[in-house]
Design brief:
By secondary structure, this protein is of the alpha/beta class. Helix content is about 45%, strand content about 15%.
Length: about 260
């Protein structure tokens, strides 16, 4: 089992939700943290709480869609922290709109942050890990990366893309001592639905019933940290909704009936 004490862990989307919860869980393990996201003020609040458990925690504000700035940010993180042992690609945005009503620019926006931003950051960190022949790449996908869900066409597409990319990357890195873990959360109690992109480009500003009754973020984070410590390749985390992954695989006719009944 991997020891996380004094490992440098870079977490994107660390200002709220799963990312924030993972930051606290990693801090309790004694990891040195780099916290990134767009809300610098909230990141500073998370940092203060993390410093109760770990002596080192840096804040590096970033916008994953500003890909041209990522190279410089990676250099800054490496200068501050010395190395990157674990990169947790968690930042992303969901969607709540019908495909027929969603302008293409929204599809592109979601793909930019959920896929291209994640890939760009990974490509910049990977050479450092390859040089050291050590590292762990973690990407927070979704159960919607396993099957499509109504009102989330672009989101589902972005998470399917993430799944394919990191599965292929894992196979490429098999001889380089770099681990790849794909995390697929179901309904986790976070603000992801509130921040979801609607057809008019605004935030949904509602908490889905499924989200409100989802697995608490801290319990999700505990499972993610455990998966990292055990070098797991895949993690499904959530409540009964993750059963849909197996229904899709083994009972496709039932799946196709059930999926049409999902409303939010």
């Amino acid at each position: 089992m991997k020891c996380l004490k004094e490992k440098v862990v870079w977490i994107t989307g660390a200002s709220s939700g799963i990312g924030e919860a993972v930051a606290y869980a990693m801090a309790r393990e004694g990891a040195f943290l780099v916290l990134s996201g767009r809300n610098a003020a909230k990141l500073e609040e998370v940092k203060i709480r993390c410093l109760q458990f770990t002596p080192k925690c840096w804040v590096q504000a970033m916008d994953l869609t500003a890909i041209e700035q990522l190279d410089e940010l990676v250099s800054v993180v490496l200068e501050q922290a010395g190395q990157i042992d674990i990169l947790i690609n968690n930042a992303g945005r969901s969607q709540r709109s019908l495909a027929r009503e969603t302008p293409l620019r929204n599809d592109r926006d979601i793909m930019e942050i959920n896929f291209f931003g994640v890939v760009a950051l990974t490509k910049l960190v990977l050479p450092h890990m390859l040089k050291r022949q050590s590292g762990h790449l973690v990407v927070v996908s979704s159960v919607t990366g396993k099957f499509g869900v109504p009102m989330r066409t672009a989101y589902s597409a972005s998470k399917h893309a993430v799944q394919g990319y990191f599965e292929a990357l894992r196979a490429e890195l098999v001889h380089d001592h770099i681990q790849v873990t794909i995390v697929s959360p179901g309904r986790i109690k976070t603000n992801i639905s509130r921040n979801a992109l609607t057809k008019d480009g605004q935030s949904y500003n509602k908490m889905d019933d499924g989200q409100a009754n989802g697995l608490p973020a801290d319990r999700c984070a505990e499972q993610i940290v455990r998966a990292i410590k055990h070098d797991r390749k895949e993690l499904l985390v959530g409540k009964k909704e993750i059963a849909m992954v197996y229904i899709r695989r083994f009972l496709p006719a039932l799946f196709h009936r059930l999926i049409t009944k999902i409303k939010n």
